[in-house]
Design brief:
This protein has about 350 residues and is of the alpha/beta class. It has 12 helices and 15 strands.
């Protein structure tokens, strides 16, 4: 049984709590927020027996912390928890500052604890894990191009609206997509992009688009928006042997080889994905063949990593690389030039 405390009882804390309290091998022993009413409300709603305003009160009684505070002020919290020997999950992005990211990664490594980021697209079977694992299996050949586009008309409020706190649409929102593209293509070498503040009085970026060149040779494009008037989502991967694309109708289409027919991927069977990335199939009767372990949720994965001493699927280093990619996008937007990601590492940091 792994004991955990939820730190930060706002929107994301409340989103994660119901899943955490249902896990059979997890005991959620406390909830913490600087606003006592928020901590009490989350605790009451989810049957958690203890709440407080100082997370340090909970550390003697937990093995791990589930951190849902804002990215611009979590550095000291994460370091304190790591130094106390607690495994750490934090919501994305890793931070607003590259230096803060480095400090948190160093502290968790020194303490020998797990540090996982909440990039949930790595854990949603359809279509994200399915499409990435199809490519990773080699079925589509070498990467030519991949893309993500998500438009979510929204007026950001509170700290989300401020560029210096949230990083705007491309860090707070778009980093999900950038992380997924990096999961497909690997480390990014070069970025060329542009960000926009569309609405009058906007205090942060509301729209952004970019092209990435991967070190592996392929390319990616990303476009995300809070200011688009119409919602839209699309994604796909083009390889040297085949392609897989999420269509506007929500169906995933795949074609391997020019002589083969295009197929619509069996979504229900595709949910049966084991940790090695083997895709589920149906037997002759039409029943889904069982695999050793069905795909895990983000929450299940974190605690399995704690219990079995495994490297998380989305690490602090992954979060840092995604942050660095977004920073290169900002610099490209400012200068109008392509930016080499390595040039932004600086100050002895490595990518």
């Amino acid at each position: 049984m792994t004991r955990v405390a939820i730190i930060g009882c706002g929107g994301m804390g409340n989103a994660h709590a119901p899943a955490l309290v249902k896990l059979p091998n997890v005991d959620v022993v406390g909830a913490c927020d600087l606003v006592p009413e928020k901590a009490q409300a989350l605790a009451d709603k989810n049957g958690i027996g203890r709440c407080c305003t100082d997370f340090r009160e909970l550390l003697p009684d937990v093995d791990a912390v589930w951190v849902c505070t804002e990215p611009f002020n979590r550095r000291d919290l994460v370091i304190t928890c790591a130094e106390a020997g607690k495994h750490v999950f934090t919501e994305k992005p890793v931070s607003r500052s590259l230096q803060d990211a480095d400090d948190m990664i160093a502290a968790t490594k020194k303490a020998g604890v797990k540090y996982m980021l909440g990039y949930c697209l790595r854990f949603w079977p359809m279509p994200y894990v399915l499409m990435r694992d199809t490519f990773a299996s080699g079925e589509l050949g070498e990467l030519v191009s991949c893309w993500m586009r998500r438009f979510m008309p929204w007026v950001p409020a509170r700290w989300y609206a401020h560029q210096e706190k949230s990083g705007g649409a491309m860090l707070d929102f778009g980093s999900h997509d950038i992380d997924w593209l990096r999961w497909v293509g690997g480390d990014v070498k070069t970025v060329f992009g542009k960000t926009f503040r569309v609405r009058e009085g906007a205090l942060g970026d509301e729209h952004g688009a970019a092209m990435f060149a991967f070190r592996s040779g392929g390319v990616a494009t990303v476009e995300d928006s809070w200011s688009a008037h119409v919602g839209e989502s699309s994604m796909g991967i083009i390889g040297t042997k085949g392609s897989i694309v999420l269509g506007a109708d929500g169906k995933v289409r795949k074609r391997v080889g020019y002589s083969e027919d295009e197929v619509i991927v069996d979504g229900e069977a595709a949910l049966a994905i084991d940790p090695e990335g083997n895709l589920g199939k149906r037997d002759e009767s039409g029943a889904i063949k069982q695999v050793a372990t069905r795909s895990e949720t983000l929450h299940e994965h974190f605690f399995r990593c704690v219990e079995e001493d495994l490297e998380p699927r989305s690490t602090g280093e992954d979060g840092r690389k995604t942050l660095l990619t977004v920073m290169a996008l900002w610099e490209s937007s400012r200068t109008g030039k392509a930016v080499e990601v390595d040039e932004l590492a600086g100050d002895g940091c490595t990518t």
